[in-house]
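User: Hey, quick favor. My workstation is busy. Could you predict this chain's structure for me?
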Amino acid sequence: MQRGIVRIKMTTIYLTSSGEYSSWHVTGAFSTKEKAEEYARQTNSDNDVDEYVVDEEFDPARVGLRMHRVFMWANGDVLTINLNDYEDEEKAFATCNGRGEWDVTVYCYARDEQHAIKIANEKRIGLILEGKLPACAP
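Assistant: No problem, here it is.
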């Protein structure tokens, strides 16, 4: 499962609507304000034109996530974990340490340290299963 942050350019759409309260309903959706206004003029005078932003860029902070850096041994034991507010890209990679073994570093958005450790372990297992481990010499 991919947990990366998806950044999408925002798009604006224009909806025409009619009615009030329980009778309110959308009568059309358009890519430009001009097209929506033209439709509203041609259909009837009580069509309103409203502007909506869709595909807004994902902001992890809005949903309570912060970037964490998790450093763990090959067996999954956590060596260090800390907040890492200057990094904005999720990634996971394995490197060789001085003992001829590999370690894993994971940068991930998470609610808290326990959530970050869970994500890091999933990434570590993924690296193992995908064969993306370095060949380390003792």
